[in-house]
């Protein structure tokens, strides 16, 4: 038996202002986008903004459904839209902001497992890491240099 240790490094910023102007702008776009979420059931609003290497910004917000599993997270709405509209573009970074109508969300909210798996597909496809920044409503921002730091041992098409 061998022990396998998996390590990830994430970067925690106390405030959005500590980040570059470009990242701040992308996060402000995510914040604006989360306000357009369709979240009548959870009252939890998530916005995601993607910057592509063609300088396009693609956004997504969570879209819920009375048949709950039919809804989709903000991150997947955004990355699938980017894949559909700009199939050859590289996703450079993603900014995510989440808030609740019922409580204040000050801790950074990481993307769910299904969103990590979906983002992983595009990181593998493009052969370049995707920076991921996530926050709550206000306060700290966490940065991951690559999706792989959020999802070790990713499952990808090489297994098929
Ligand atoms: N949600 C996202 O949009 N992204 C995540 O990574 C986690 C959860 C949404 C899905 C659902 O509309 C609501 O938040 C509550 O789970």
TrEMBL record:
Q: Name one GO biological process term.
A: nucleobase-containing small molecule metabolic process
The source's domain of life comes to Bacteria
Which Gene Ontology molecular-function terms are recorded?
cytidine deaminase activity; identical protein binding; zinc ion binding
Q: Report the catalytic activity.
A: cytidine + H2O + H(+) = uridine + NH4(+); 2'-deoxycytidine + H2O + H(+) = 2'-deoxyuridine + NH4(+)
Choose one Gene Ontology CC annotation of this protein and give it.
cytosol
Q: Needs which cofactor?
A: Zn(2+)
Where do the annotations place substrate binding? 62-68
Q: Which UniProt keywords apply?
A: Hydrolase, Metal-binding, Zinc
Please list the residues that make up the active site. 75
Q: What general EC class does the enzyme of this chain belong to?
A: hydrolase
- This chain's protein is named Cytidine deaminase
Q: Which organism is it from?
A: Pustulibacterium marinum
């Amino acid at each position: 038996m061998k022990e396998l240790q998996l390590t990830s490094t994430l970067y925690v910023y106390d405030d959005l202002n500590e980040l570059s102007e470009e990242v701040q702008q992308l996060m402000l776009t995510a914040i604006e986008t989360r306000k357009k979420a369709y979240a009548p059931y959870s009252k939890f609003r998530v916005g995601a903004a993607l910057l592509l290497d063609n300088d396009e910004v693609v956004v997504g917000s969570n879209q819920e459904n009375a048949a709950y599993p039919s809804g989709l997270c903000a991150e997947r709405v955004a990355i699938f839209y980017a894949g559909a509209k700009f199939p050859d573009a590289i996703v450079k970074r993603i900014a995510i902001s989440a808030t609740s109508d019922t409580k204040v969300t000050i801790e950074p909210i990481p993307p769910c497992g299904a969103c990590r798996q979906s983002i992983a597909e595009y990181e593998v496809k493009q052969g370049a890491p995707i920076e991921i920044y996530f926050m709550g409503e206000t306060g700290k921002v966490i940065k991951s240099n690559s999706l792989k730091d959020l999802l070790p041992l990713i499952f990808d098409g090489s297994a098929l």
